[in-house]
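Lab notebook, bench 4. Still working through the backlog of constructs that have no structural model yet. Next entry is a single chain of 363 residues. Request: give me the structure tokens for it.
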Amino acid sequence: MKYVSEFRAKAFIEALLGEIAKEAASGIRRTFMEVCGTHTAAIARGGLKRLLPAAIKLVSGPGCPVCVTSTAYIDAAMARALRPEVTIATFGDMLRVPGSAGTLEAAKARGADVRVVLSVLEALAMARERPDRRVVFLGIGFETTAPTTAAALARARAEGIGNFLVASAHKTMPAAMRALAADPAVAVEGYICPGHVCTVAGLAPFAPLVEEFGIPAAIAGFEPTDVLAAVLALIKQRNRGESRLENLYRRSVRPEGNPKARRLVASVFEPADAWWRGLGVLPGSGLALRREYAAHDADAVLPVAAEAPREPAGCRCADVLKGIIEPKDCPLFGEACAPDRPIGACMVSSEGACHAAHRWDRS
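Model written out:
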């Protein structure tokens, strides 16, 4: 059965590539952008760029949450980590994201209490078990991860676990996509929309973007066939002068998304301005804790002195995140900057465009 399934998948991929080649036969160049780190990794791992006609270019956008997180946020996390009463709880990728003066991994080596967790609930359990410690969870990610952070905060408030804090760097994707669509230097002609985000957010946040800019969009899953089906949908729309939001991931994404998850997020967080690497400050694109949760807000409880962050010299991660350059066009790529010694944030996570290109696509 395994081989039958693989044969069918291969046949489906060949059929999709054939249809894409027909649509691209005019030679008109089209640039489509994926805005999900899982898509970025899937495209690189599957070698999909090499399979597409030369007229179709796929570029990576700001879909990796680790990549878009600010240096200032890392600096603040390191400052808190060095406080004797603080435990930093974070996902593993965040340990190696460069700040102005090193990484959380280096701070841990110097004795800071930095713990890797697999979920925010582990951090909450840590705070429950160690009431003498202030446990600060580094809340990053988009609409997909914000509900779990919200759930942990709601539980901490209900149980009176006052030593559980969150430093929120959660962001929402539509504002970033709108900023890119409005930037003539980017020239995106179609979006492969993030399937995970849409599972929570639904279609409504993305429809106005399509209408405002007349840019085709397709929500896709994460198999090679899913991505190629999205490319085919986008080039068909372009060739026919259409601009629609197509849901090609109906096995997971409903038009209304997940209302329960959205209500939970809205009860804990409120929109706030947020800084994105490559895009700057985007109004209302972040999620800050509501006033009712101020006692669990690391920014309020453990403020740190704000100093101007220092970005790594020569790193062009910001341009990679906007799709202006390919990772290999950065002068640091593959030499000074590699997954085992990242200089830029885009080389840290497996969802980062530079990491994915270095690991799977060295052409």
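Notes after review: The radius of gyration is 21 Å. Residues 70-172+258-301 form a domain with the Rossmann fold fold (CATH 3.40.50.11740). Flag for follow-up if needed.
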